[in-house]
TrEMBL record:
This is GTP cyclohydrolase 1 type 2 homolog. SUPFAM superfamilies: NIF3 (NGG1p interacting factor 3)-like (SSF102705). One of its GO terms (cellular component) is cytoplasm. A divalent metal cation binds at residues 59-60, 98, 225, 229. Coiled coil: none annotated.
């Protein structure tokens, strides 16, 4: 399974600081059920165990930084023990899935209504074809007001407590759209340089967002981090199934619908 998956999302494409690949499990163990999820958290592992999964594929790493212990006295240690005692392997595809063509941001673009040709927002210089990279830029079939684009994006993404936050004139026309799954304020300049009317991403910080919103030349849509990456799960599962020979491989995949966004409650929101 790992060979087929890595042919789609090559670990060599991952950022130097990232930790991707097999986290725990025997590479030689038979795999019949694979659960895809964004986060390797306790509820996802419980879902995998209840479903009888042999493997969990997550977007976010469990062990991104070095550790000296996986004792069950720590949250991550408990997860490792639960996975091992349940016979469940864990595999991570993170920035290698972000930069892949197609990858995380292609699925995000499709979810918010971009169905035409896409180009990388921040191209990978190691790709001579210029197709891989972080984020995507594309065009809507016809311009729409920002408020309509935001409403379309809200319908296309899974619901979270915080929903979407929007900066910009609600009546401004939107045609060119930049998106990036996950934290994207480091790409604000790239979105402006790409001529985007709006940039949809997650985890926008106050000061960079304020600076760009003040200029008024690009609108911003800030979604939950988890929500911007969740659409990729179905695409990753489908591509792996095809790579394994479809139904002939006797492998079943499932996309977790558990909302693992960190924020679970919101209070005091001002009315629009």
């Amino acid at each position: 399974m790992t060979t087929a998956f890595e042919a789609i999302y090559d670990p060599a494409w991952a950022a130097s600081w990232d930790a991707v690949g097999l986290v725990c499990g025997d590479p030689g163990q038979p795999v019949r059920r694979i659960l895809f999820a964004v986060d390797p958290v306790a509820r996802v592992v419980e879902e995998a165990a209840e479903w009888g999964a042999d493997l969990v594929v997550t977007h976010h790493p469990l062990l991104l930084r070095g550790v000296t212990s996986v004792a069950a006295t720590t949250p991550k240690g408990r997860l490792v023990h639960r996975l091992i005692t349940s016979g469940i392997a864990l595999y991570t595809a993170h920035t290698n899935a972000d930069t892949a063509d197609p990858g995380v941001s292609d699925a995000l673009a499709a979810a918010v209504g971009l169905d035409g040709p896409l180009r990388p927002l921040d191209p990978d210089p190691a790709d001579p074809e210029g197709r891989r990279g972080i984020g995507r830029v594309g065009e809507l079939a016809s311009p729409v007001p920002l408020r309509d684009f935001a409403a379309r994006a809200a319908r296309g993404l899974p619901a979270t407590v915080a929903g979407l936050r929007v900066a910009g004139d609600p009546d401004r026309p939107v045609r060119t759209v930049a998106v990036s799954g996950g934290a994207g304020d480091s790409l604000l300049g790239a979105a402006r340089a790409a001529g985007a009317d709006v940039f949809l991403t997650a985890d926008l910080r106050h000061h960079p967002a304020s600076e760009f919103a003040e200029h008024g030349d690009i609108a911003l849509v800030d979604a939950a981090h988890w929500a911007t990456e969740w659409p990729w799960l179905a695409d990753g599962a489908a591509r792996l199934t095809r790579a394994l020979g479809g139904g002939r491989a006797n492998v079943e995949t499932r996309v977790s619908t558990l909302v693992t966004d960190a924020w679970t409650q919101a209070f005091g929101a001002a009315s629009a």
